[in-house]
Amino acid sequence: MKPRILTLLILSFLQFPLQSQEFRQTQVDSYTRYELLSPDSQSFRIIYDVSATTAGATKYFNTLRAGSEHLVDAVWDLASGKELNWEIVDGKEARKNGHYYANENGEYLMVDLARPVAEGGQARLRIDKTYKDVKSYYKEDGSIVFDRSLGIKRNSVVLPKGYELIGANYPSQVEHEEDGRIKVSFMNDGPAGVPYKVVARPAKNMKFRSRPQNPWPDYKPTPQGRDKSKARVRYSINERSFQNRDIVYFLQQPETNSFFLYHDYTEERVGMDKYVNIVRAGSKASGPSAILLDTGEKLKVETLVGKEISDKGIEVNNLSDETEAVVIWYDPVKEGESKRLRISETYTDPNRYLLVDDQLIWDRSFGRNRNTVILPEGWMLTTNSIPGRIDLTDDGKIRIRYVNGRPDNIDVFIKAVRR
Predict the structure, then answer these.
(1) Pairing relationship of beta strands 370-374 and 246-251 according to DSSP bridges
(2) Same domain, residue pair 257 and 198
(3) From CA 118, how far away is CA 120, in angstroms rounded?
(4) How far apart are CA 325 and CA 305, in angstroms?
(5) Is 343 helix (H, G, I), strand (E, B) or coil?
(6) CATH no. for residue 57?
(7) E strand residue ranges, 268-309
(8) Residue 270 covered by a domain
(9) What digits encode the pLDDT tens for the residues 226-270?
(10) Same domain membership, residue 179 and residue 120
(11) pTM across the whole model
């Protein structure tokens, strides 16, 4: 083979994987809210939140499900609150515009992002569309049925006004919304989509329910938490599946009693200009850093102790000379905007992460709905108290993912031994 031809062939093979990587779309933090419309319409509104994560991407592609009649109402950039330009394209057009894995026979919502996705960052979107799908939403024996295969892990279904819930085939939260509608939500902790089925029937006494300004008017904190001898008469729940605070722990070798972590947090409150993380008693934080995921911008971080906290105008319950706070500063949130932060730090906690009789011991309470623990290199899992999905990271470490759809904490206890 001539040298020039061989060179061209080598170049073509080198270019192909680069193109594959460039056009592969990635995303995280997907959440879907289905609002069932009039049963006669067999239609439902879909509000879909998603974060595009392909570095450098200027467009996002949302697959429009085959077999449904769809109408797209709007797409918003959640960071700025502004509407984005979009159009519906076929698979061939999607491939031309960067979605390498698009099905040529499929149909896609192509969105122009507000800014290219930053390296290690995200572009957060909210898509508002309406589907008519006679196979997913129908009447049966005087009831209405929503029966749909859901691949997204966090979902909610809102019944039409005047309907009561009589069936949900997966463990679900139920909430009476302010306008009188019933919302059913669930989190899928498995690796595949599930056939989620919700059944409801007409009811005569579905009224508007105002949300109390203070859901705990009589609540007095105690060392044991709330007083469990009394009913929480004015308690108002929060939808667990909608919460998007998640955390990943990378355990260092247990002799160090240390673990690196990062956690993601979204701030929507107008005027807020900081995130305050109070370090747990018995722990020590080091090397804190933070970025604004929407832009990739590095944020100012301070570690404050005792009186330094109050001197900055930060209010903390039970402030003492030992209280330690990691404070992340950013520009105040404006009306209609939100900010997504990623906060990283290393914790040292000899009380809850340690080595005993050559066994790694991890005993820590998790309050978030999504938590991940990655064991250090060279260790195999022998005990895990809370059910979690277990797999290997790309570099061969044991990873355990915990999805907690309940509103309370889980006490995770892990033991491991050296291989």
Answers:
(1) parallel
(2) no
(3) 6
(4) 6
(5) strand
(6) 2.60.40.1730
(7) 274-278, 284-292, 297-298, 300-305
(8) yes
(9) 678 889 888 888 899 999 889 999 999 999 999 999 999 999 999
(10) yes
(11) 0.86
